[in-house]
Design a protein that fits this description.
With about 500 residues, the protein is mostly helical. About 45% of the residues lie in helices and about 0% in strands. The protein has a single domain, classed as Glycosyltransferase (Alpha/alpha barrel), CATH 1.50.10. A two-stranded antiparallel sheet has the order 1-2. The longest helix has 24 residues. It is globular and about 70 Å long. Bound molecules: farnesyl diphosphate (FPP), potassium ion and zinc ion (ZN). Farnesyl diphosphate binds next to helix 11 and helix 14. Potassium ion binds next to loops.
Length: about 500
Amino acid sequence: MPLVAGKRRNVRFPLAHLKTAPLTTAQQKQKHGHQKQNLNLKNRLGNHSTSSSGGEMAESAAQPGIPALFTQPPSLRDPLVTETTDLQDATLSKCLPFLKGISDAQKGPFNANGVPALQRGDHLDYLYDALEDYPAGFVAMDSSRPWMIYWSLAGLTLMGEDVTPLRQRVIESLRPMQNPTGGFGGGHGQVSHLASSYAAILSLAMVGGSDAFALVDRKTMWQWLGNLKQNDGGFRVCEGGEEDVRGAYCASVIISLLDLPLAQPPGRQNELPGLSKLTDGLAEYLSRCQTFEGGISGSPGSEAHGAYAFCALACLSILGPPEETIASHMDLPLLLSWLSARQYAPEGGFSGRTNKLVDGCYSHWVGSCWPLIQSALDGHPQSASAPSTTVGSLFSHEGLARYILSCCQHPFGGLRDKPGKHADSYHTCYVLTGLSATQHHHYRTDSSPCAKENFSSAFSWQSRPTNPEEDVFEQGDRLTAFHPIYVIPHQAAEKMRLWYEAESPVV
Ligand code: FPP
Ligand code: K
Ligand code: ZN
């Protein structure tokens, strides 16, 4: 929790706890936790419950088929009451009616597991609309144009839509954002940024085709990336901008998909003598971003966060096979402990960092870390099909699917952070990506469709649907599988890479 200047932190120790010996869990519950929880629950459930009976009845009412783990507050509570624990309690109160399937603001039908259906039609309408004009209030999003395109295309693709009819529109929208000095800006006339370039390249990959691929000036992209490379191995996100793991991940995605030369472009070779390749020192830089908690921060010395963990692990998984790159640059047991702590009960969703709240977008940022970790633990793949022995899944697919379908669907379409929040295209994209992650097992094989050796392990991923007998969602709600590194369909990543491999080299 950040300290806000001028605002006192609201930390209260219950008197009983200070005066007497430590309380048993049962006593703690009785003294404050339970009372407070009940009050919150009564207030909130009263508003949402479809039951006409009193508070106590409403509290116990839930759709049939939901395990108690997902309908009751946690039995263990920290006796220290702070602003953080208050926020967590308020979040629980907001989520519980949705997890139980008894909120008025929730659409059915509910299946035998008490899980609501995916409102596919509403979400499709929401995303197609997100590709159209915006009211004046959205002017701040003018620097996120490639992102707005990417989030919509990715969400539509996940829900099975063919986005190739949007090809020409996507090309003409992105064309003015490419700068003659390399890369894509966030909008017309804006400086190139690695995040907007990443979103632009992935959007072009999704619509596919020669016209889309030919839009990219690979030579200036390569030269621009050279200008962003830093002498500690990392990348700045733009010239004169910050250096962080987003830069490392976005640069690696672009280099590997566009089949750019690994050599530093001319000029940089003399400035960064120890780093003859764009990828040199990058894994070591990422290693320095692992924190005392085991998670990964945006840059060395700052706080571990799920979004940065994904960037770092996906970047390592591009640089080489995860069982080599992740295993040798991360403390895996510590990383596992921190990543496991991101999934909460009863919510089922993931938080981005210690002592913070679940948020639907971490269904991807944290959820997509898991296949990369699983691959690192599974070791070198022995065949072109699924591994015969695997550590298997290391997070609760059921919990995440319940959080997404019960708490993250806005009744008017689009997906969101949590109940009470508006939908937006960022959350719609990443919540759906997370849902897809719960519906598939991702694994690496020993074969890649690429002609070149470099990055072959990044292109060796495959997936198969989870076992329907273990799924809590309806089979009709299964989404398209996304590549765990490139966050687009496997085929889209492969086709783009193969097209550039067949082009004449940049130098
Ligand atoms: C905290 O927000 C969020 C961050 C510190 C990281 C945000 C970064 C991303 C979402 C993705 C970056 C990746 C790419 C590829 C550009 P918060 O304090 O509002 O949320 P919290 O309370 O959940 O931590
Ligand atoms: K958040
Ligand atoms: Zn979010």
